[in-house]
């Protein structure tokens, strides 16, 4: 395959709260352990100290890009109080990536926020856009030479989480409902389908993104966008009209908000049906992933085609992967997903990179069991153990995608 050009970004992604450890000033740290079944992040993967080791593994495998986040709760632990030391820490991470020949893709918000921000009402508060913009202005001081910046990860999932928080405050949740464990199926996590957000849930998130975009464009040379959780919805018989409504609330509103961005991040794992009653739970099936979702490597191409049509900007695949303990299955899933992606690109979809989720097995927002990583991590010693999939993806990258049809 010659679809992937020489400037194509090949890499993997992580999120700070999931890998760094001891993010004690964040709302997620405060939330952990409050619900039955919710595990603690603790030291996580200790990547706050071991980021060079992580990046070296990625670079030596043959990948050329790393998406990682900078943690708002560390940089602004109190309202308006910014830490020069923490800004310098994240700048050191950027410099390390560049030193290793890795193009950093920086995420400014990946689900976790300062605890004080949450106490003010979080993303449901009218002050949220101004608060976020103030942080972005401070963070931009270390981002001048970064190629790509993602303002907010999965704003549609943030909006959905407002529904979960409201349900929890009403006493309607008797156990933790992870935003990344989608529903029943064959999994140990038994929970109902995640709620569909309504447009008002995301209005301040959209405003915050647009303010952040302008702040970054004034202060950096980065290409700016945000990443959207793309569900690759399809209609069951009789569900065509309901599909349009759910897709707008869950996805298209946020893809529309990306118009005028330099790119939009597409994050895709599976496909889900919609019938006349709403989202259809993934049926129990032996092929389902560890989090209960259907095994659908074709979903990525469905997602990029739809995102390109709605947002009309270039695409950066910022997450795609599978929760499985079987690395052979991970390789098979990723190979097929990339083959479908290549077909979409050959049809004219402008895709600039593929960043696998995730580099490391990590803390999956309340659970440690789901395994998404190209690298296993011992949670006691923090020893990194690269899986075969890391080298496999690196070889695909080195070949410019030519080896997709082979081993």
What can you tell me about this protein's structure?
By secondary structure, the chain is of the alpha/beta class. Helices cover about 40% and strands about 15% of the residues. The chain has helices at about 15-20, 25-30, 45-60, 70-75, 85-100, 115-120, 130-140, 155-170, 205-220, 240-255, 300-310, 325-345, 390-400, and strands at about 10-15, 65-70, 105, 150-155, 225-230, 235, 265-270, 270-275, 280, 315-320, 350-355, 375, 385. An eight-stranded parallel beta barrel has the order 1-2-3-4-5-7-10-11, surrounded by eight helices. Strands 6-8-9 form a three-stranded mixed beta sheet, covered by helices on one side. A two-stranded antiparallel ribbon has the order 12-13. Helix 12 links the parallel strand 10 and strand 11. The longest helix has 20 residues, at about 325-345. The relative contact order is 0.15.
How do the helices and strands line up, and which of them pair or pack?
Layout: E1 9-13, H1 16-19, H2 27-31, H3 47-61, E2 65-69, H4 72-75, H5 84-99, E3 103-107, H6 115-119, H7 128-139, E4 148-153, H8 155-169, H9 203-219, E5 223-229, E6 233-235, H10 240-256, E7 264-268, E8 272-275, E9 278-279, H11 299-311, E10 315-320, H12 327-346, E11 351-357, E12 375-377, E13 384-386, H13 388-398
Parallel strand pairs: 1-2, 1-11, 2-3, 3-4, 4-5, 5-7, 6-8, 7-10, 10-11
Antiparallel strand pairs: 8-9, 12-13
Helix pairs in contact: 7-9, 8-10, 11-12, 12-13
* Low-pLDDT windows of residues: 183-189
Which shape, going by the Cα principal axes?
Answer: globular
What structural class should be given to the helix and strand makeup? alpha/beta
Counting DSSP H or I runs of 4 or more residues, the number of helices is: 13
- Quick one: biggest sheet? 8 strands, parallel, barrel
Count all strands and give the number: 13
């Amino acid at each position: 395959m010659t679809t992937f050009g020489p400037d194509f970004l090949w890499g993997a992604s992580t999120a700070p709260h999931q890998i760094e450890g001891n993010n004690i000033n964040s709302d997620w740290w405060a939330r952990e352990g409050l619900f039955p079944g919710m595990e603690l992040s603790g030291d996580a993967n200790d990547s706050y100290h071991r980021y060079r080791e992580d990046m070296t593994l990625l670079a030596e495998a043959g990948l050329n890009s790393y998406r990682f986040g900078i943690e708002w709760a560390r940089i602004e632990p109190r309202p308006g109080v910014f830490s020069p030391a923490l800004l310098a820490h994240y700048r050191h991470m950027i410099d390390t990536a560049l030193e290793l020949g890795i193009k950093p893709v920086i995420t400014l918000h990946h689900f976790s926020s300062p605890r004080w921000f949450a106490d003010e009402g979080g993303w449901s508060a009218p002050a949220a856009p101004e608060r976020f913009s103030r942080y972005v202005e401070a963070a931009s001081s270390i981002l001048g030479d970064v190629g790509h910046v993602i303002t907010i990860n999965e704003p549609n999932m943030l909006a959905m989480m407002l529904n979960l928080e409201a349900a929890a405050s009403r006493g309607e949740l008797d156990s933790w409902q992870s935003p990344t464990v989608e529903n029943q199926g064959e999994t140990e996590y038994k929970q109902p389908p995640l709620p569909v957000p309504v447009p008002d849930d995301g209005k301040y998130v959209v405003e915050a993104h647009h303010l952040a975009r302008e702040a970054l464009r004034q202060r950096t040379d980065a290409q700016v966008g945000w990443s959207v959780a793309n569900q690759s919805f399809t209609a069951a018989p009789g569900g065509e009209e309901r599909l349009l409504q759910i897709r707008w609330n869950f996805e298209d509103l946020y893809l529309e908000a990306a118009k005028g961005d330099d790119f939009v991040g597409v994050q895709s794992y599976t496909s889900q049906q919609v019938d006349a009653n709403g989202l259809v739970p993934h049926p129990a099936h032996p092929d389902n992933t560890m989090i209960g979702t259907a095994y659908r490597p074709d979903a990525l191409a469905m997602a990029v085609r739809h995102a390109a049509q709605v947002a009309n900007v270039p695409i950066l695949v910022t997450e795609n992967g599978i929760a499985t303990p079987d690395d052979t299955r991970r390789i098979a899933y990723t190979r097929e997903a990339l083959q479908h992606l290549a077909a979409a690109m050959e049809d004219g979809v402008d895709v600039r990179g593929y960043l696998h989720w995730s580099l490391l097995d990590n803390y999956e927002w309340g659970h440690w069991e789901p395994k998404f990583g190209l690298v296993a991590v011992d949670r006691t010693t923090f020893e990194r153990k690269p899986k075969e999939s890391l080298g496999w993806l690196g070889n695909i990258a080195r070949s410019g995608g030519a080896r997709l049809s082979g081993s």
